[in-house]
Design brief:
Blueprint: E1 7-11, H1 15-26, E2 30-34, H2 38-57, H3 63-71, E3 73-76, E4 87-90, H4 96-109, E5 116-119, H5 126-131, E6 139-144, E7 153-158, H6 164-177, E8 181-186, H7 193-210, H8 215-226, H9 232-239, H10 241-255, H11 264-271
Bound molecules: 3-hydroxybutanoyl-coenzyme A.
């Protein structure tokens, strides 16, 4: 791969994929977002357009820059449209099977052998995803935070197979091109942030489950007592309770520490389809049209 990364692909247009695509387009990059089909691709476009509108309304972005960013984005239901990309960021559901399938397919589709294949996984092994490709040295973790246009951090995750060139390209991309602050983590479940954050969210869920305090009081406690921008149950609702449960399972599988074990209430809420903001109800009720 010669020169800086200008052609980016994002696989998955949910809240993380749409956010990653938005920051790429806002940074002037030619960005292709791939979803499972044309209808999901249209929904991803709506998600990005809604967030760009929000940035304009909040005075963070001129209207013309929002239009330019949208014009740089292509939404597709066909993974082969990513063939000419210099970097692809996978941001599909936090499931080993789903992510493995995407990496195996990208390995066949992306033509440049020096292209970087990145995963936005929160907790799965970057090495295992790399091993399903014939180019594990080009596979790296690029872990963004939700809401992606607002939060300035990216974790760059290096597996035992990732080459130094790939890490340098990932860092240059996240830091210089997107303007994010980069921290580095080895390839351990949860990396730096989720390994610390998720046990805290699970403790809050256990506290609510035991009747120790109400969801509202737990959140108010951490917002007003510790100046967190949102309490732990609101944050779990923002991340998505299915994603929180998947991350907890990966952490527990890796470390076997009780603090990572998903509490029964979390499991039940996921089974009940009460996933937080994206379904309109989690620990709190939401307007489904309000992204956060
Ligand atoms: N583009 C750019 N800026 C935007 C924007 C957009 N689309 N939307 C909002 N903003 C800006 C606003 O202008 C505002 O900036 P200001 O403070 O300079 O005025 C700021 O973002 C906050 O926006 P709002 O006023 O609309 O909203 P709130 O004040 O209610 O904040 C929140 C909402 C940003 C979600 C805040 O509550 C927050 O930061 N919560 C914590 C989120 C968090 O911890 N995320 C990490 C989750 S863990 C994760 O993602 C990892 C994964 O693996 C699970």
């Amino acid at each position: 791969m010669s020169g800086p990364i200008r052609r980016v692909g994002v696989v998955g247009g949910g809240q993380m994929g749409a956010g990653i695509a938005e920051v790429c387009a806002r940074a002037g990059l030619d960005t292709v977002v791939c979803e499972v089909d044309a209808a999901a691709a249209r929904a991803a476009r709506e998600r990005v357009a809604g967030s760009l509108d929000r940035a304009v309304r909040r005075g963070k972005l001129p209207e013309s820059a929002a239009q330019d960013a949208l014009a740089r984005l292509v939404f597709t239901g066909d993974l082969t449209d990513l063939a000419d990309r210099q970097l692809v960021v996978e941001a599909v559901v936090e499931s080993p099977d789903a992510k493995t399938e995407v990496f195996a397919a990208l390995d066949k589709i992306v033509e440049d052998p020096a292209a970087v294949l990145a995963t936005n996984t929160s907790s799965l092994s970057v090495m295992r995803l790399g091993r399903v490709t014939g180019r594990a040295d080009r596979v790296v973790g690029l872990h963004f935070f939700n809401p992606v246009p607002v939060l300035p951090l990216v974790e760059v995750v290096t597996s035992l197979h990732t080459s130094a060139d790939t890490v340098a390209a990932a860092e240059e991309f996240a830091g210089r091109t997107l303007g994010k602050t980069v921290i580095h983590s080895r390839d351990r479940s949860g990396f730096v942030v989720n390994a610390l954050l998720v046990p805290y969210l699970l403790s809050a869920i256990r506290m609510a489950e035991s009747g120790f305090a109400t969801a509202a009081d737990i959140d108010t406690g951490m917002e007003l007592g510790c100046a967190h921008p949102m309490g732990p149950l609101k944050l779990a609702d923002l991340i998505g309770l299915d994603t929180v449960a998947s991350i907890a399972e990966s952490l527990y599988d890796e470390f076997r520490e009780p603090l990572y074990a998903p509490p029964p209430l979390l499991q039940r809420m996921v089974e009940a389809g009460l996933l937080g903001r994206k379904t309109g109800r989690g620990f709190h009720p939401y307007d489904p049209y309000d992204p956060y």
